[in-house]
Specification:
With 241 residues, the protein is mostly helical. The radius of gyration is 18 Å and the shape is globular. It has a three-stranded antiparallel beta sheet with strand order 3-4-5. It has a two-stranded antiparallel sheet with strand order 1-2. It comes from Candidatus Kentrum sp. FM. This is HipA-like C-terminal domain-containing protein.
């Protein structure tokens, strides 16, 4: 799927990342809050967190519009993916797999380039794979006999920043969100699930092994790999859309 590229970098002894701009010269990014405020006059565009108006239904209404294209140089992996919403479903599957809890209304958007408007590549996945956990907590969740604290329970707690309705008290859990989103485009959802099924587990292991020494602890690596394995199992084991 189209995505922002990130490269580890060091500048004056400060670690960070280099990420090429996803917005072409002469184009501009219209974040989700701006896009939704354009079609919903009462949308709280400037609210930062707990935005109950950031609902699946509103996102679907926006992205199902055939006038919104795919990113340039990206071609659908199947004829079942025909709208920007179908592509966004892939983003939601990714969020579920990696336990990304930060798909708020400024973490997705549209790009306008000349007369063309298209869905921006997915970006900003930092709030995923238990990045805020300490190694002590990771180790406990991997080894504990308390099923309420085990990583298998932990992965089920991941929540998106997208609500089912404007009256919902909490955003949807990531898997619930994907399943509900999939009901609106079941064929494209099955395509994304098939792509996930085709990813060998060794590919994830190899990816973590490529990280420079000292960038991730062995415990954090083990935790992330177990999280990915469990969420893949949950996605593929859920009722088919």
């Amino acid at each position: 799927m189209p995505h922002a590229d990130y490269n580890l970098a060091v500048w004056r002894d400060q670690k960070g990342v280099l990420s090429p701009c996803i917005v072409p010269e002469g184009a501009y990014l219209i974040l989700g809050n701006e896009s939704l405020a354009f079609i919903y006059a009462d949308y709280p565009e400037h609210k930062v967190r707990q935005v109950r108006d950031h609902t699946l239904d509103r996102i679907h209404t926006l992205l199902a519009d055939p006038a919104i294209a795919f990113p340039p140089d990206w071609h659908p992996i199947s004829a079942t993916i025909s709208t920007a919403y179908d592509l966004f479903l892939g983003y939601l599957l990714l969020d579920t797999w990696i336990a990304n809890q930060d798909r708020h209304h400024e973490n997705w958007g549209l790009i306008r380039h000349r007369e063309r408007i298209y869905l921006a590549p997915t970006f900003d996945h930092a709030a995923s794979m238990g990045q805020n956990e300490t190694d002590a907590r990771r180790k406990n969740r991997l080894q504990t006999g308390d099923q309420r604290q085990h990583i298998s329970a932990y992965v089920k707690k991941a929540r998106s920043a997208i609500y089912e309705t404007t009256t919902s008290k909490k955003p949807l859990p990531t898997l619930d969100l994907f399943q509900k989103a999939a009901q609106r485009s079941p064929k494209s959802a099955r395509t994304w699930l098939d792509r996930l099924r085709q990813i060998p587990d060794n590919d994830c292991q190899d990816l973590f092994e490529r990280l420079p020494y000292g960038e991730i602890t062995p415990c954090a690596k083990q935790f992330a790999l177990e999280l990915l394995a469990l969420n893949k199992e949950r996605l593929l084991g859920a009722p088919k859309p």
